[in-house]
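User: Last request for today: this protein with magnesium ion, please.
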Amino acid sequence: MSKRIVIALGGNALGNTLPEQAEAVKITARAIVDLIEDGNQVVVAHGNGPQVGIINNAMAALQKEDPNQGPTPLSVCGAMSQAYIGYDLQNAFREELLNRGICNMPVCSIVTQVEVDPADPAFQNPSKPIGKFMTKSEAADYAAKTGYLVKEDAGRGWRRYVASPKPKHIIEAGAIRALSEDGHLVICCGGGGIPVYRTERNHLKGAAAVIDKDFASELLAEQLDADMLIILTAVEKVAINYRTENERWLSSMTPDEARTYIAQGQFAPGSMLPKVEAAVKFAQSKPGREALITLLEKARDGIAGRTGTVIRQ
Ligand code: ADP
Ligand code: MG
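Assistant: Here's the final one, the structure of the complex with magnesium ion:
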């Protein structure tokens, strides 16, 4: 049965360096084109952690080299990462489609802005470390020079911290939907989208923030009226008692069961927790909707009900 599916690609779909990404997208393309071959309408969202880090560092180096260059806003680094990742994915998807004889499916990336609420409490409590690690004194200098917030990151050194507000609205949803319904393979919401907020009249201003890509993908799935949200990551299933001797891999969860596990602290914040929260939100957003969390290479088996963790009412 053909479904409208939003896919959220995790870090392993793209790798950590430029050469890694060039290789990783080939495997990613096979997994995505499998689903298209099965007759599904697929829209692809993706993360950008390592890539936006690389770009951020490169732009900081540029500023050092050329005093005429000011600092590059994080929103601009995010836009650059969407274009760079979009390029590699577009190229790999096109090649894989053509290799399988699917010659009538144009591929495109949409630079995507996602509206956030400037009153979101997340702005009062920046929780997301980004960019390079610094010593305490480097961090103090950096903070004095830039006005950015710096904190220690889990004993690994000092880093810049930004807010991670909830996505409210995908500005380009109309274009994404029109292209997808017209048979294009659309890549969008890279890195959770470029966070923007409304200032006076119609102006959208970039925010120094990072939107979680799992939450942005969930919102995209709702806005596109998708049947299924698939979060592809580095584990085949979600576990309770993860990495303990009582570890148990789950084939399915209801939203109520998931909430119980969340309350027990079963899912690590910043990795599995946002995925399960996004899956629960989507599964509850309308009858019949379901979410799947599985490995990139297992997407096809997961849709067929053979593996992964399904979250449904
Ligand atoms: P992505 O880049 O796909 O968003 P993350 O590293 O953010 O990947 O999240 C996936 C990781 O979450 C897994 O690789 C796993 O190590 C970790 N994880 C934390 N808690 C759990 C759990 N309860 N069950 C399964 N995986 C978990
Ligand atoms: Mg993640």
